[in-house]
Design goal:
Layout: H1 3-9, H2 20-28, E1 32-33, E2 36-37, E3 40-41, E4 48-51, E5 58-62, H3 67-86, H4 89-105, H5 107-118, H6 122-150, E6 154-156, E7 159-163, H7 169-182, E8 186-190, H8 197-209, E9 216-218, H9 223-231, E10 236-240, H10 243-253, E11 259-263, E12 269-272, H11 278-289, E13 302-306, H12 310-323, H13 342-354, E14 359-362, E15 376-379, H14 386-389, E16 396-402, H15 405-412, E17 417-418, E18 420-424, H16 428-434, E19 442-445, E20 460-461, E21 464-465, H17 470-475, E22 478-480, E23 509-511, E24 514-516, E25 523-527, E26 533-538, H18 542-554, H19 562-577, H20 580-591, H21 596-613, E27 620-622, E28 628-636, E29 640-643, H22 651-662, E30 667-670, H23 677-687, E31 696-699, H24 703-712, E32 718-721, H25 725-734, E33 741-743, H26 751-757, E34 759-767
Parallel strand pairs: 1-5, 7-8, 7-10, 8-9, 10-11, 12-13, 12-18, 13-16, 15-16, 18-19, 19-34, 29-30, 29-32, 30-31, 32-33
Antiparallel strand pairs: 2-3, 4-5, 6-22, 11-21, 14-15, 17-20, 23-24, 25-26, 27-28, 28-34
Helix pairs in contact: 2-5, 3-9, 4-6, 4-8, 5-6, 6-7, 11-12, 19-21, 20-21, 21-22, 22-26, 24-25
The protein binds NADPH dihydro-nicotinamide-adenine-dinucleotide phosphate.
Length: about 775
């Protein structure tokens, strides 16, 4: 056939990759692969049948690890951790480099096995999954090398339990293991039941690379094995998977002291403006939703298309869908491979069949028998339709239209998720205006699904918290060198004294920029150390929390500039400084100490410090190995509530407030219960300092009554639990309601940690060149 005709018809032949390399590796292990613990494969049981989803054939048998076996793996990791940490960053870097080089050497084995095990096209495993996984180890070898100088104030967490899903088996392993090892942690990783094969090859590579026994442990199994790992004596759980399991894990780890990062589901918008390069945007969609059969947490699964170009766009998209080739994942000509498992296929079918809204179009392309699903487009949906909201996790794109950029943003953000977003426009001004407005951890401009080890990835809202990759990802695998002491609990003074005069001195709450009586109408007497009555403090309840958060959500502080925030914080500092003696007297009267003046000066200094930081806590431009800039923008985490510590009633109130405001967050401060009057006094400083309504709210009353409601509140993104472990547990137990971040504070002078806690990185990718 002449080449011209081939270009016309796009006829192609099959180009199958040889699978024998993978089958040989399995055969060398006798077809049965045991968990990898303490540097060796343990004897295997044939509990789990690992299948090739494209054919249904059995690839291998594996052990379903029990609780005891998980415990054994954790013990091995625990025993290995001190020496691995002591070995130092440069020594760990050598091991990580060795891992990267050996993965490169075995890249073909890894790619073929990944496609056999998961069903993804070999083009993807060969050109995307495996190279990105290797890059992760190279990149983090560098972080290990630099740790002693660049992160000298941070140390490893200890033993990390890591649970990964089936959609990017080796890549997710790399995202988890590389940073953990670089920072001096040891790990126990549980791959998904469907796709453990490449993790076991990685284990083999660990032995070859000289990874000391116990540093990497891999336990195979199902959800019960994952749950056992969550319960085990580990210092951190890093989880990628569904929001429902993420929620269970957040509940299970509440009060355990375990660090937690959650990378969960998404329903990411793919926005096409009317000035977009339509053919590129159509091609981008192929990568957004048919990459890995749409089984991608950040898949651009919600197409929002400008009404003016919708018909043209949909027609071109359908024509492109009809050309996609579905079939044998090991065929290099294939675009769309197999769905990971018949159960997942049934879920996709069920969701699409249950939908009665819009028009459904299946690609007119041959679909093989078995675990395959055709590329599908559902147009004409409304934002509230189930399929516009629920993650399908398959090759199904849903679509709706918009008329204005503002409407596009509104529809895009109308989701419980906030993982990724894509936007297409030839207008760079529009792109850079829209990108910050999208609630997402990653935004791609005129491109989609770009990843790199140097650029952070992760979500917000019910897509989870924490970042993987880059400097920001290292936070999640290290902690400050100096542990934070547990804040002392202070028992309120009691007394019976009467007020010095008849004037009612019951203080008020401060909500929405106003002095507010407590909803319940109750207040409590506050006594000094000699039993003298100092005043009455209101007792806030759940309704007061709701009012405060409502005011926070309406305040718009996140849209202000750092310059403005600095001016207001400076003004607060000046106004507080002007009343030093009044606040010092109040502090001394409440605490019985004589350190009031010192504490006021420290609080003023904190305000000046965070004012200074307000326009200097910046993002980075990431050095990614492609023709793109990846901007790591620091964004406020959103509405924060803080349970303030008793130890320094004023400083403990002002520090979280200043850090939150500096980084663009609003905050509701639950003041120290024994010493609330300095907080109610402080509300007058707020009134006098041009702080917009709702940016700071002050509640008083027993924190134990407020903590559960803060934990459960759907509007709060974060609770800072600064008053001790007991209330932290209360908050954590309820924080899974909306996958809330819970943070326990940092040393007073550890400004970076406070500012980090107030921000989350959004990575905005902008490719360049013609
Ligand atoms: P899951 O969340 O169920 O599984 C993810 C990982 O957690 C797997 O290793 C799984 O083990 C393990 N696991 C399951 N139950 C528990 C538990 N109770 N405690 C601890 N670990 C547990 O996701 P699935 O893989 O089953 O996929 C279901 C849905 O999740 C998808 O349809 C999709 O919506 C979403 N998903 C999101 C991903 C993302 O990257 N955000 C990735 C994959 C899925 P095992 O697999 O052995 O059961």
């Amino acid at each position: 056939m002449p080449i011209e005709t081939i270009f016309d018809t796009m006829e192609y032949g099959t180009a199958p990759e040889d699978r024998s390399i993978a089958l040989q590796w399995i055969a060398n292990h006798g077809g049965l692969i045991g968990p990898y613990v303490n540097g060796a494969f343990a004897p295997a049981r044939d509990d789990l049948t690992i299948r090739n989803p494209a054919t249904g054939e059995k690839l291998a048998g594996m052990t379903l690890c029990t609780k005891d076996e998980v415990t054994e793996a954790v013990q091995s990791a625990r025993a290995a951790q001190p020496d691995w940490q002591k070995a130092g960053g440069p020594a760990r870097a050598r091991v990580l480099y060795a891992l990267a080089r050996l993965m490169q050497k075995h890249a073909r084995l890894l790619a073929v096995t990944e496609s056999l095990d998961n069903g993804k096209p070999i083009r993807e495993s060969r050109d995307i999954d495996i190279p990105l996984a290797i890059r992760h180890f190279y990149h983090h070898a560098g972080h290990a090398q630099l740790m002693p100088s660049a992160l000298s104030d941070r140390v490893a967490l200890g033993v990390c339990g890591q649970i990964i899903p089936w959609n990017f088996p080796l890549l997710m392993l790399a995202w988890k293991i590389a940073p953990a090892l670089a920072m001096g942690n040891t790990v126990v990783l549980k791959p998904a039941e469907y796709t453990p094969m490449t993790a076991m090859i990685f284990a083999d590579i660990c032995s070859q690379a000289g990874v000391p026994p116990g540093v990497v442990n891999i336990v195979t199994g199902d959800g019960s094995t994952g749950a056992a790992l969550v319960d085990a004596s580990v210092d951190k759980i890093a989880f990628t998977g569904s929001t429902s399991v993420g929620r269970q894990i957040q509940e299970a780890t509440a009060g355990s002291g375990k660090s937690l990062t959650l990378e969960l589901g998404g329903k990411s918008p793919y926005i096409v403006f009317d000035d977009a390069d339509i053919d590129s945007a159509v091609e981008g969609l192929v990568d957004a939703i048919w990459f890995n059969q749409g089984q991608v947490c950040c898949a651009g699964s919600r197409l929002l298309i400008h009404e003016a170009i919708a018909d043209d766009f949909h027609n071109r998209l359908k024509a492109r869908m009809d050309k996609l080739r579905i079939g044998d994942p090991l065929d290099k000509s294939i675009d769309v491979g197999a769905i990971v498992d018949p159960i997942q296929l049934q879920q996709i079918q069920a969701l699409v069949q249950a939908n009665t809204a819009g028009q459904t179009y299946h690609a007119q392309t041959p679909v093989p028998e078995g675990c395959f699903y055709p590329p599908t487009l559902i147009t004409g949906l409304h934002p509230a339709d189930t399929l516009m909201q629920e993650e399908i996790f398959g090759p199904v794109l849903v679509s709706t239209t918009f008329r204005t950029p503002a409407e596009a943003v509104e529809i895009a953000n109308n989701s419980k998720y906030g993982l990724a977003a894509t936007l297409w426009t030839e207008n760079i001004n529009l792109a850079l205006e829209i990108a910050p407005k999208l609630v997402a951890g990653v935004v791609w401009v005129n491109a989609t699904n770009l990843f790199d080890a140097a650029a952070g990835f992760g979500g917000t809202r019910e897509s989870g918290f924490g970042r993987e990759g880059g400097w920001e990802g290292l936070q999640a695998y290290s902690k400050p060198r100096q542990p934070l002491p547990e804040p002392a609990q202070v028992t309120p003074f009691t007394g019976q004294g009467a007020a010095a005069d008849d004037i009612d001195r019951t203080a008020k709450l401060f909500i929405g920029g106003k002095q507010a009586r407590p909803d319940g109408g109750y207040s409590q007497a506050i006594f000094g150390p000699k039993g003298q009555l100092l005043g009455h403090a209101p007792i806030a309840n759940r309704k007061d929390i709701r009012n405060a958060v409502q005011a926070q959500l309406a305040c718009g502080w996140g849209k202000t500039t750092g310059h403005l925030r600095a001016q207001i914080l400076y003004y607060l500092a000046e106004n507080l400084a002007a009343q030093t003696s009044r606040f010092a007297e109040r502090l001394d009267a409440m605490t019985g100490l004589t350190t009031g003046a010192e504490e006021v000066r420290a609080a003023v200094d904190v305000l000046f410090t965070y004012a200074a930081w307000a326009d200097k806590f910046e993002g980075r431009a990431k050095s990614v190995p492609m023709r793109a800039v990846a901007l790591a923008m620091r964004e406020p985490v959103g509405a924060i509530a803080a349970l303030c510590s008793d130890q320094h009633p004023l400083l403990g109130l002002v520090t979280p407030m200043a850090a939150a405001l500096s980084t663009g967050n609003s905050i509701t401060l639950c003041a120290s219960a024994p010493f609330p009057l300095v907080a109610t006094d402080f509300s007058h400083i707020l009134e006098a300092s041009d702080v917009p309504a709702g940016v700071v709210n002050i509640l008083t009353g027993p924190q134990a009554d407020l903590a559960p409601h803060l934990g459960a509140h759907m509007g709060l993104e974060t609770v800072w639990c600064l008053s001790g472990a007991e209330l932290t547990q209360e908050v954590q137990a309820r924080a899974s309601s909306n996958i809330k971040r819970v943070w326990q504070g940092a040393a007073q002078d550890d400004h970076d940690s406070w500012l980090d806690a107030g921000t989350e990185i959004k990575t905005i990718w902008i490719p360049y060149g013609e």
